[in-house]
Amino acid sequence: MVQSAFHIGSAEFKNRVLVASGTFGYGDECTDAVDISRLGGIITKSLSMKPRDGNPPPRIVETTGGMLNSIGLANIGVHRFIAEKLPFLRTVEVTLIVNIAASTVDEYCAVVDLLEGEDGIDGYEINISCPNVKEGGLNFGTNCQMTAEITRRVRARTKRPLFIKLTPNVTHIADFARAAADEGADAVSVMNTLIGMAINARTRRPILSTVTGGLSGPAVKPVALAKVYEASRAVKIPVIGIGGITCGVDAIEFLLAGAIAVQVGTANFLDPAAGVRIAGEMTAFCEEQKVADMSTLVGALDARTGVSVLDSWL
Is 80 helix (H, G, I), strand (E, B) or coil? Predict the structure, then answer.
């Protein structure tokens, strides 16, 4: 039996595969396709104080090896989540992390204040890195001082585990991981999508209504591995890896780069059971490699230091 369970603060995870925010709804929509209790955890779709319609279509387009989206944080709002989604989620034996998005620091705090009165929530992931909204999002996630302020103010409101989701659209993600860690975050999620765009040459127009969107899928995996490697060397808190994971070996690579666990995102659009499958493939890999405890793989990359460009700013 391979040991794959782990914890971050008070949150216990039965394995090292979580589903990423925005790719699995609120969990209840996927129960016909997969036994969600077999996941390590669910990160809900982002919640804001009021419902959001998101951006106008077209807001998704396939690209080579990936997908561009410009959903714009469409969601039902925290009040409907509490009334309509949370009662079901309390009945499922799976760790629940609520992702929160906001246009202001006060809104982050207000949403957390509302959720603090509810049972069945194991932690929060604060989204400061969405590339598809005009207010908040990258304006917060590309500013170290704002990253620190949001972390500090939310930290003061809860003892539940607090994850900060970081953007790769910065020069040094290590600086942002440190800003979150220094203000009390329990973990950082690395990474959100890369800014990208797609063009229709015949119409000479961008395909997405917002011109640019967030690129995800296998095309971004090499970037994500490097960001996880960088962040995990900069901070002592856990790093959760995200970016183009489609199989168990992909996930193992993220553990070797320094991630304590992974989130599966775009693969869920092809197969809602991808997370459960990948968790099984990770176990099979460990059995094959005679690894009894998956934690021994975290940060176990056999790489020379002082030869990567990252070493110049770490």
Answer: helix
Catalytic residue (choose from 30, 130, 144, 247):
130
Task: Please give the biggest Cα pair distance in the chain.
Answer: 57
Express each pLDDT in 149-201 by its tens digit.
999 999 999 999 999 999 999 999 999 999 999 999 999 999 999 999 999 99
Beta strands, E only, 131-236 = 162-166, 187-190, 194-197, 199-200, 205-206, 212-216
Please report, for residues 272, 281, 308, the alpha-carbon distance to residue 247 in angstroms, rounded to integers and kept in the order given: 13, 7, 27
Report the DSSP beta bridge partners of residue 50. Answer: none
Q: pTM of the predicted model, to two decimals?
A: 0.96
Tokens for 40?
Answer: 């390590």
Give the strands of the sheet with 66-69, arranged side by side. 60-63, 66-69, 212-216, 194-197
Angstrom distance (rounded) from CA 161 to CA 157: 11
61, 210 Cβ separation under 8 angstroms: no
Rounded to whole angstroms, how far apart are CA atoms 38 and 207? Answer: 37
SS3 36: helix
Whether 245 contacts 262, CB under 8 Å: yes
Please indicate whether residue 130 is annotated as part of the active site. Answer: yes
Backbone conformation region of residue 22, classed left if phi is above 0, alpha if psi is from -120 to 50, else beta: left
Whose tokens are 């994500």? That residue is: 224
Query: pLDDT of 191-210, one tens digit each?
Result: 999 999 999 999 999 999 99
Closest by alpha carbon to 23, among 287, 296, 284, 274? 274
Of 235, 152, 160, 154, nearest in space to 190 by CA: 235
Type of residue at 291: V
Question: Using the 8-state DSSP alphabet, how is residue 218 labeled?
Answer: G
